[in-house]
């Protein structure tokens, strides 16, 4: 027992070991996901609250692995972030979304803006602007039809740098939406200096309206704040008619959520677009 006690610094934990093995397997699998064509995008419509028409869509990443199955971004984006794999994966997503949007434009008269998420690590990549320019060139998409969604927290982690970057994007005619708005610590003064097209109210607030008084008050405040900065406002995660009514009554511009549609395949989205075009 005495000997054992001395050795407790290198005890063996099957639990810990299992987790690190799993992690290694996941990491290896993720590192080959692009070349094995396991990544794909779903598209969720953004809908104008007054006209009920689709005005854009958010591209959302999915990973289908032959043995691990379908993996949601919450399960692999954090790993991609930690390992740096988010850089190639992120560019893959931007390229795929731009190419797909360009294809839709061949068949539809309505031109929509496709939104792609950009994480903090991607924001800090020194080749970001150069690579996005190359992707737009290669896919032949007009930059006006690309939007980047950047979380409030990512922007605020380095406001000066973010400001410079957002101005470069603006100069290229690419729009920026502030994602998960209300969950960070932005001040009005900071937000004013950023060239932002839209603010996305985080789902955590939208879910509480209209019953929860705080969520309703915050939602109203964000709508007013955004409008005073001449930004468009979109509510994410609207699931009920009541939420729709509340958002419309309080002048929110658009919504994205299961009530209108869950994220869908590129083919289904294309079908939906065609029905809208002929309306
Ligand atoms: P997000 O940017 O906040 O995306 C919105 C999430 O809310 C999506 O989850 C969407 O499917 C979900 N959602 C939409 N409407 C509703 C609703 O009415 N109810 C509920 N309960 N959920 C709704 P998803 O697709 O699982 O994506 C999760 C997160 O993964 C995203 O959060 C985003 O941060 C990240 N992500 C997804 N694709 C990419 C990507 O291409 N690049 C990067 N960097 N991150 C991505
Ligand atoms: Ca988003
Ligand atoms: Ca969110
Ligand atoms: Ca988000």
UniProtKB/TrEMBL annotation:
Compartments reported by the entry: Cell membrane
Domain EAL: 23-277
Protein name per Swiss-Prot or TrEMBL: EAL domain-containing protein
Part of the whole protein covered: 733 to 1011 of 1014
């Amino acid at each position: 027992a005495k000997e054992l006690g001395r050795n407790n610094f290198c005890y063996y934990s099957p639990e810990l070991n299992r987790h690190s093995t799993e992690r290694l397997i996941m990491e290896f699998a993720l590192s080959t996901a692009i070349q094995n064509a396991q990544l794909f995008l779903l598209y969720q419509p953004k809908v104008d609250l007054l006209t009920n028409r689709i005005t854009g869509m958010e591209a959302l990443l999915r990973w289908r692995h032959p043995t691990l199955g379908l993996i949601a971004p919450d399960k692999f984006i954090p790993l991609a972030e930690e390992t740096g794999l988010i850089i190639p994966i992120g560019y893959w997503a931007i390229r795929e979304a731009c190419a797909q949007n360009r294809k839709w434009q061949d068949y539809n008269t309505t031109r929509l803006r496709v939104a792609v998420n950009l994480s903090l690590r991607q924001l800090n990549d020194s080749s970001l602007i150069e690579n996005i320019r190359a992707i737009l060139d290669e896919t032949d998409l007009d930059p006006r039809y690309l939007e980047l969604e950047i979380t409030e927290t990512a922007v605020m982690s380095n406001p000066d740098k973010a400001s410079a970057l957002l101005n470069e994007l603006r100069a290229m005619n690419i729009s920026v939406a502030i994602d998960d708005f209300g969950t960070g610590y932005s001040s009005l003064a900071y937000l004013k200096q950023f060239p932002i097209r839209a603010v996305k109210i985080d789902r955590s607030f939208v879910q509480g309206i209209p019953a929860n008084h705080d969520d309703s008050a915050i939602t109203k405040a964000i709508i007013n704040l955004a409008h005073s900065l001449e930004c468009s406002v979109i509510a994410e995660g609207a699931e009920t008619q009541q939420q729709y009514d509340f958002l419309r009554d309080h002048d929110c511009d658009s919504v994205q959520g299961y009530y209108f549609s869950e994220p869908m395949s590129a083919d289904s989205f294309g079908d939906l677009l065609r029905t809208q075009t002929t309306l």
